[in-house]
Prior knowledge:
6-stranded antiparallel sheet, 3 domains, Rossmann fold, globular, 10-stranded mixed sheet, 36% helix, alpha+beta, Tumour Suppressor Smad4
Amino acid sequence: MIDVIYNPVAGPRVVNRIDQVRSYLSARGRPFRIRETAAPGDAVVMARESAIAGADAVVAVGGDGTMSEVADGLAGSSTRLAFVPHGTGNVFASEFSLPESVEGCLDLLSTGKTISVRMAQANDRRFVLLASAGFDAEVVERMNPGQKNLLGITAYVLCGVRQILHSQSTLWVEFPGRERVEAQSVIVARGKKYGGNVTIAPGGDIAGETFQVIALLRKGRWSIAKFALDVLRGKHGASRHVLIRETPSLFVRSAIPSACQVDGEYLGPLPVRFTMTDALLRIVVPKEFPSPPDSPDHLAEALKGLGKDAWQSQGGADRFLKRERDSWK
């Protein structure tokens, strides 16, 4: 059974995508049902119900926010997450190199592979891709679905220009070991990508167990503007005003109210504590996407390198992979 969960406010053409999903699954005789969200948090509950019912996969249709809610509901279960992007930033699609077409994304259910990644957490909210505090999150807070649907990524730019005219909060970022730095904006990345297919964290590893923290240390509105331009050009890492740090956790607070967002959706005001969880999410990705180091396919290749005798002592490729994949279910 495949459940399809979609956000009806993810854009005026999302219904067309749902029609394509319905046609694709019907033509292949796959049993499915389609469920429409009505309010924030609905996708979490629906996905959790799908997992409890033993669904093989849940197909999320919408933006990164819809994907994130579905992932939260599936975390820790054996139900797989597939994604048909129809949002503004589409960071998930960029991070996992998903096909552009609906058919291509759905083909991955049979032709792709399934990997497991750890969920991150901001206070009590689990997320997949990235989060931020300060300027970036305040822009997200001020966005509304109508602006995003009408203007797309341009809406973020225009809202950012308006936000830059306001005074910015000073953030305190605390790392393990009592290290603390002051910053104007903080981006917390699990993988490499940011909105619009921008690479924000070249050292990011979505299958790893740490965050890449990108903190703008210099204060002032023009520092924000320069930082944004440097990010677009891929030069922010060379700036002495930008701190990039790998860490398993961090705590961010501010003296005056500021915001936090996760996976492109407003979370709430600071303070916020970011941690990694033990909950695994099973994601359908293209075969070409690198497997995590401890995945069955990766272990198989490693054993092959030990030589014929060692490989055969493990029972050969087919039996080894079956045994390992069964242990991941």
